[in-house]
Amino acid sequence: MATEHTAPMQPPRTETGWIGWARFNLFGSVPSTIVTVVSAPLALWACWAGLSWVFTTADWTLVTSRPQQYVIGIYPTEHAWRPLVGWLMVSVLFGLAAGMWKGAALRIAIGYGAIALVVGLLPYGALHEGVNMPLDIRLLVLGNLPVLAVAYWLGTTEAVGRPRWLIVGGLVTYVLFLSLLVGLPGVTAVLPGVTAMEPVSPRVWGGLMLNLILSVSGIVLSFPIGVALALGRRSNLPVVKLMCVVFIEVFRGVPLITLLFVSQVLVPLALPENFPVNSVTRAAIVITLFSAAYMAENIRGGLQGLPPGQAEAARALGLPGWRVTVWILLPQAVRNVIPAIVGQFIGLFKDTSLVYIIGMLDILEIGRAVVQGNVEFADNGRELYLFVAVIFWLITYTMSYASRSLERHLGVGQR
Amino acid sequence: MTSLTYQGIPVWRHARILGWTAQIVSAIIVIAAVAFFIYNLASAVEERDIPRGWSFLSREYSTPISESLLPYEESDTFAYAFLVAATNTLTLSLVGVAFATVLGIVIGSAQLAGNWILSRAAKVYVEFFRNVPLIVQLFFWYIVLLGLPQVREGYVWFDAIYMNNSGLSLPWLKAQDTVLAWGIYAAVAVAAALAVQQVAIRRELRTGRPSYPLVWASVTAVLIGAVAWVSLGAPLVIDLPRPVGRFGHLQGGIGLSIELAALLVGLIIYTSAFIAEIVRAGLQSVSRGQGEASRSLGLNAMETLRYVTFPQALRVIIPPLISQYLNLTKNSSLAIAIGYADLTSVAKTMTQTAPAISIFLIIMAIYLLFSLGYSLIGNLYNRHIQFRGG
Question: Do the chains contact at B330 and A36, CB–CB below 8 Å?
Fold first, then answer.
């Protein structure tokens, strides 16, 4: 009789480690083996060709020689500190969120800080004669890092690290950022000679900043409008329902480009003469309403997916009508359709690249202006579009990453 | 004795009265806003003498349309120009939808493949093309295609497919004079085949012996086709593109301009990435046990996919798929960015010589019509494949 434990046998070496992995994932069956044999060299060649194009053939001068234009467009250089101060305020929000939630929010904030570091330290002068970033601008960009760190620390504290402060901070940042960009004419009137806050026309807003402003405005406003439309469409008041259905179907049935044209040609006519509405506002309104119509359908889907017992139970407990909707139905409905809602936000961000149709210089159009306006860049279109694609991809991918971690956090599909 | 009259809730808290008040107030606000906009529009039109009305529709458009499926001349009317542009958009949409669906299904299934390289490649494809704005992709494909060699040095395959920087030329079918008579034969053939199939099915049900309804139906159709061929000759001939003249311009076949080719490539790749995600989610929604049960009943992998997994996944796939078809149709309006004459870009040009308000109303109506068409077909098909009680 055996008195000693026999050590368990090791699994066969071909079943574990990278050999086992390859056996299961690359050579699992005859067709799989054929696919591997054919596609592995192809994939390696594609990676090699792509990387060698990016690092040797491609000429990135059109990006590196004028980084400022891609970020803030043709916003006057002497006022460039204004969007940069706005950037500092945004860093506060990222830092707070990272300190409060850790996890994915922290990883996003680290990536965000890394971008600020790279932008602030890049040796532009070494790359191109005469192109350099002034020291004050560099310091403002690098200032994002300490701001991020302090905000992170604040976020971890009990007193500040609450979602409500993040929301308040977000709204304050939004308003301050826009007023910084527009300028405060009152300042020059009161203190003649102080030109720091003189007005800057929204016509010169541009670059990635314009895409971000339009999409943040759209996201913030289209969500409540979408909720209202979804509730209106499900209400049992026929007139309200009809108006919501017509609005939703018209905005969903027509391309955004057509709506942007309409906004450009008809909206100025439909408003009283001299009504102060500039093209940025018009574009923001159209993008918001377009997105709200889609948002309404997403939220309606979420509401339809809820079992009727939820509303009945809430009513049986004595909750009055609107509170059933706001406290019981909407939170569950929105939670269930987070992927669709974030997908809609991503779509909205991508759609901001269409504003060039009405003559605005977003990151794509400013790049096209660089290519078309300079003979030396005439053949560099591919580099430009790849660069813009990567910028858009980074931001949209971050959004879907945040959405996935939010879903995990809320336990969607696990309750 | 105190009267027990029912006091009731006060009027201002009565649900029905509250409801009606809300409706009337909101209706008044909306109608007032719309009336305000229309009044401003009308007075602006009056004051600034902006063209209006619908009489322009019968006027000559007298502006070229760069490329169209229907024959078009500059002396044609605005109304016909609308038809030409709408046909262009519809063609784009149908061709795009067909290719995007096939590509999307292939890539969506590849995402679930057991082979690591294949599933990774499919994932990268989806994540990249879905997350980059279509307009950036269109500009990219456009300059890539513009970088192709000139006509005389272009790529030629099998002396039939020509690709160069002025476009793509493919073989196409050319209708002969007998095509109408062929149509009649075809109708007869279809009717006869259906009748034969029904007879065979009945026989199979009655006798229990296999009667091969599909085989007999096909034989009937082929026989009638053979009669037609002998009596009429071929209905269509293949028309090959061929270079003509000193500069080697291509004639014959069907030609796609660079703009159209770039637009199609961009739309198909962009939409297929979305469709791939829908297909993947649909296939994953079918519970694993279904496939395992089917395998243990003796169906092979292909039959399991064809008869068990896919039909069930289809129920999840169809509704979002239809909205992708709609998106593709609407996204085709980005044609204006690279200069293909679709509905939106023709309409934009028209606004220079005709009333903008009428033109926008017309194109919005046409796009809504397309949307309704796709939704209608989609919903009918969706109802057809849903679970039926029983």
Answer: no
Closest listed residue to residue A269, CA positions, set B47, B239, B367, B230: B47
Closest CA to B220 of B193, B185, B187: B193
CA–CA gap between residue B351 and residue B330 (Å, rounded): 20
Q: Dihedral sign for Cα A89, A175, A356, B99, please.
A: positive
Q: What is d(CA A360, CA A279) in angstroms, rounded to the nearest whole number?
A: 8
pTM listed for this prediction? 0.85
Contact across the interface for A258 and B364, Cβ inside 8 Å: yes
Average pLDDT over residues A57-73: 82
User: B169 pairs with which residues across the strands?
Assistant: B162, B255
CA distance B102 to A314: 47
What ipTM does this complex have?
0.87
Residue A39: list chain B partners with CB under 8 A: 115, 117-118, 121
Nearest Cα residue in chain A from B331: A255
Task: Give the Cβ contact number of residue A162 at 10 Å.
Answer: 14
pLDDT band at A223 (very low <50, low <70, confident <90, very high): very high
Q: Does B112 touch chain A (CB under 8 A)?
A: no
Look at strands B242-244 and A361-362 and give their pairing.
unpaired
d(CA B365, CA B368): 5
Residues on chain B touching A242 (C-beta within 8 angstroms)? none
Q: Kindly tell me if the per-residue pLDDT of B237 is higher than 80.
A: no
Q: Quick: pLDDT tens for A310-347.
A: 888 998 998 887 888 888 889 888 888 888 899 999 99
End-to-end CA, chain A: 51
Within an 8 Å CB–CB cutoff, is residue B330 touching chain A? yes
- Count of positions (residues) in chain A: 415
- Write out chain A residues lying below 8 Å of B27, CB-based: 239, 243
Over chain A, what HEC string results? Answer: CCCCCCCCCCCCCCCCHHHHHHHHHCCCCHHHHHHHHHHHHHHHHHHHHHHHHHHHHCCCHHHHCCHHHHHHCCCCHHHCHHHHHHHHHHHHHHHHHHHHHCHHHHHHHHHHHHHHHHHHHCCHHHHCCCCCCCHHHHHHHHCHHHHHHHHHHHHHCCCCCCHHHHHHHHHHHHHHHHHHHHCCHHHHHHCCCCCCCCCCCHHHCEHHHHHHHHHHHHHHHHHHHHHHHHHHHHCCCHHHHHHHHHHHHHHHHCCHHHHHHHHHHCHHHHCCCCCCCCHHHHHHHHHHHHHHHHHHHHHHHHHHCCCCHHHHHHHHCCCCHHHHHHHHHHHHHHHHCHHHHHHHHHHHHHHHHHHHHHCCEEHHHHHHHHHHHCHHHCCCHHHHHHHHHHHHHHHHHHHHHHHHHHHHHHCCCCC
Among A35, A236, A258, the residue with its CB nearest the CB of B367 is: A258
